[in-house]
Amino acid sequence: MDKLRLLLVVSLSLGLAGCETVVDVDTPPHTPRLALSYTLSNTPPELPSNTSNRSFFGQRQLYVSSSQGVLETKELAGRGDATVQLFDESGRLVEQFRSKAQQGYFGSGGGPRDSIYGDYVPTRGFVGVPGRRYTLRASAPGVAAVEATIALPAVPTVESAGYAAKPRDPNNGGYGYDYSGRLTVAVADNPATTDYYLAYARVLDKQGNYWGAVSRDYSAPGADGPDINLSRFQLSDPSSFYSQYPYSDVGSNGPLLSFGTDVRLYFQGGYGSGGSVPEPGYIEVVVSSITPDTYQFYQSVLRFYDTDGNPFAEPAPLHSNLRGGYGLFGGATDAVYRIPLL
After folding, report:
1. How many Cα atoms occupy the beta-carbon half-sphere of 201 within 13 Å?
2. Cα gap 146→91, rounded to integer Å
3. InterPro entries in the record, alphabetically (predicted)?
4. Is the separation of the CB atoms in 121 and 48 below 8 Å?
5. Residue 301 belongs to a domain with what CATH number?
6. Residues 330 and 151 sit within 8 Å (Cβ to Cβ)
7. Among 223, 39, 233, 41, which Cα is nearest to 128's?
8. Domain limits at 301?
9. What is the structure's pLDDT at 55?
10. Hey, which of 32-46, 80-94, 225-239 has the most confident mean pLDDT?
11. Strand partners, 265
C-alpha cells in the first residue's frame, strides 16, 4: 500500500509540474514487524571454531532486522536483541542463535566489530536431515513473534561434472588470477516432480583446504552476460545475497539438467613459502536442492533488484513465508562433486 501511494505522489508531482499547487497525500501508519533471513541445510554451519564455511554460503546465515515504512529515510539496520530458536518435528529444541555484536564475535581483545548489527551465529552446530520438518521461531522486544516451518528437501544427484582448463596467461606473474576454463555440470532430475535447485563451485588445494572462488567469466568469447535470467540453470555466488540464481525444473523434459559456463578461479587462501600461490587441487561443485519458498524468495529478490529503484517499474514485492513478519526461513540440501585438477 505504501508503494502505491508513493507512486501516486510521483505521478501527481509530474502532472502538476507546471502549477504551484501542493497536494498532500497521506500514507497509512506502518507497524514494524520482525524481518529475518535464514537457510537451514545439511552442511555444517558457521561456528566460532569452524572457519571453513565462513566465506562460503554467506547468504544462508541468520540476519535479523525490523521492517520500516517505505517513506522512512533512515538507514535500515539490523537488531541484536532477538531470540531465535530452531525446533525439530517432535518439538525438541535443536539450535539457538546468538548475536555476533552482543558477543564481540569480531575483533580480538576489544569490543564488537560487527559491521551489520543483525548478524547471528548458531551455538550448537546443528545440521539438518533431508526429509525432516523444522520450525523456526523468533521474537524481539516491541514486535510480534514470527514462525515458519519447512521440510528439508531430498539430496540431489550430481550425475557428472567436468572442468576443461584454458592455457594460463604467462604475463600474469603467478598471482593466482590466471586460472580459467570451462565448467560443465549435469544433475539427475525427476520430470514427474517439481524440483528447485541452486548450483555453486569453489576451489580446494591439494590438501583439501579452501583455495579460492569460482566465478563466471563474462569476458570469455560467447559467454553469457551478467543479466538476470530466471529460466536458466547457472552458477550462483555463495557469498552474495543478490547473486543467487534459483532454477525450477518446470517445463524441462528430463532426465538431466545441465549447464556449461566459462569460469575463472580466484585465489583467496593462504600463501605458501616466499609468498607463493599454491597450486589448486580440486574444484568442488555444490548442487543444492531447495524448498519452494527459498526458490520464490530469491526469485523475488532478483526481480526487485532488477527494478533498480525505478518507481515506474512493475511492482516486485519480496516473497515471505514467515507468519507474523517478513523474510525467509529457507531450506537447502547439498550434494558435493569433486573434480581433480591435473
Report:
1. 28
2. 16
3. DUF4249 (IPR025345)
4. yes
5. 2.60.40
6. no
7. 41
8. 32-154+292-334
9. 56
10. 80-94
11. 179, 214
The whole-angstrom distance between residue 190's C-alpha and the CA centroid of its chain comes to: 25
In whole angstroms, give the CA distance from residue 313 to residue 316: 8
The residue type of 271 is: Y
Tell me, yes or no, if the pTM score tops 0.90. no
179 and 263, same structural domain? yes
Q: Is residue 178 a part of any domain in this protein?
A: yes
CA distance 136 to 241: 20
204 and 280 Cβ atoms separated by less than 8 Å? yes
Sign of CA dihedral 28, 29, 33, 37: positive
Residues 166 and 283 grouped into a single domain: yes
Assign 276 a pLDDT band (cuts: 50, 70, 90): confident
Based on the fold, state whether residues 319 and 255 are members of the same structural domain: no
Q: Which amino acid is at 193?
A: T
Asked if the structure places residue 342 within a domain, the reply is no
Return the beta strands (E) in the chain as ranges: 34-41, 63-66, 83-88, 93-99, 120-122, 133-139, 146-151, 157-165, 179-188, 196-205, 210-216, 247-248, 256-267, 280-290, 326-340
Cα dihedral value 285, 242, 228, 256, nearest 10: 30
Model pLDDT for residues 299-331, shown as the tens digit of each residue: 998 888 777 766 676 776 889 999 999 999 999
